[in-house]
């Protein structure tokens, strides 16, 4: 049984945040901090403060998940928090290519870590890595590696779990190639932002890696899915004074983040009987994260926070979300795709499941 790794990261005060407002956090030790003049105490798996290195976050939160994913155990890494709290900085860094080594974010480190581990295992298995990248905006799933594709449908397959129908999956053989495709995806995301006149903080972005492993000795093919998600901002619409379409966007984001919260609540409510309905279908986000939330994935959540008292209520809601997620229990297992000997899928899979059942 594995638990979700939940960490908080407080970024430095921004130039817009008034120093006179004061800071809302005081660290006690590596896991515990007090919040808002000692009103609340939080204990998470690890707390990172303004001087924390990007590498420290990768080592603690992501590296164990990458290692497992190379061994065919699914993994999910999510950044959560209000707009401007440091989600994208943590995920990408100032840029995913050609940025200062120490500023590099989780995504390039994950890619490099994954290929490092693959290259040290090539004598026991042959690996195939495929990459997809999608954005969820206004409950539509856009393929960021091919903008000509329409709304991508989500389906479920008994052996492979949640799948995105027809999504572009590019094979990548090393980290340079992977990072190039990710840059293309990010450039496409920026094009969409301009075309739709929206900000990237109003959409969720998911980076999906499938790592297939053809074992030399065991004659088996296994595959792990590794998903990184940079979520849209979690702030409430009323504070931002949004109106018109921006308000509609904010409502859609709030709905999908509430759906995520509701799924987590249902999973952690204690009554984990089969009758307990888990509302994965309430949003595209929860559908895409169904495997991760439902237990067949290791999961890490980075709660990104402003340290300023002026953002304390958003930070409190981010931390409460994280505390709730800490109680999700998972039993991820290595996924066998097919027997290399026969090249057939396991016999328990029906034709329907092989094609993947379209659920919406
Ligand atoms: P979000 O994605 O949550 O909306 P960003 O990651 O874009 O927020 O961060 C907002 C701003 O704060 C950016 O200018 C970013 O460079 C800066 N920032 C965020 N976290 C850090 C950090 N840990 N160290 C330095 N600058 C940061
Ligand atoms: Mg962002």
Question: What does this entry look like structurally?
Answer:
It contains ten helices and 18 strands. It is α+β, with helices and mostly antiparallel strands and 360 residues long. Strands 2, 6, 7, 8, 9, 12, 13, 14, 15 and 17 form a ten-stranded mixed beta sheet that branches. Strands 3-4-5 form a three-stranded antiparallel beta sheet, covered by helices on one side. Helix 1 (54-70) packs across helix 3. The longest helix is centred in the C-terminal third of the chain and has 25 residues, at 244-268. The model is unreliable at 340-360 (pLDDT under 50). The chain binds adenosine-5'-diphosphate (ADP) and magnesium ion. Magnesium ion (MG) binds at residues 87-88, 200-201, 230.
Key terms for this structure?
360 residues, alpha+beta, three-stranded antiparallel β-sheet, 18 strands, disordered C terminus, binds magnesium ion
Protein topology:
Blueprint: E1 2-3, E2 5-10, E3 25-27, E4 32-35, E5 40-43, E6 46-48, H1 54-70, E7 75-80, H2 87-92, H3 106-119, E8 125-137, E9 140-143, E10 154-157, E11 161-164, E12 170-172, H4 175-196, E13 204-215, E14 220-230, H5 237-240, H6 244-268, H7 284-288, H8 290-294, E15 298-305, H9 312-325, E16 329-330, E17 336-339, H10 351-355, E18 357-358
Parallel strand pairs: 2-6, 2-15, 7-14, 7-15
Antiparallel strand pairs: 1-16, 3-4, 4-5, 8-9, 8-12, 8-13, 10-11, 10-18, 13-14, 14-17
The chain binds adenosine-5'-diphosphate (ADP) and magnesium ion.
Adenosine-5'-diphosphate binds next to α2.
GO molecular function: ATP binding; microtubule binding; microtubule motor activity
Domain Kinesin motor: 3-328
Protein name: Kinesin-like protein
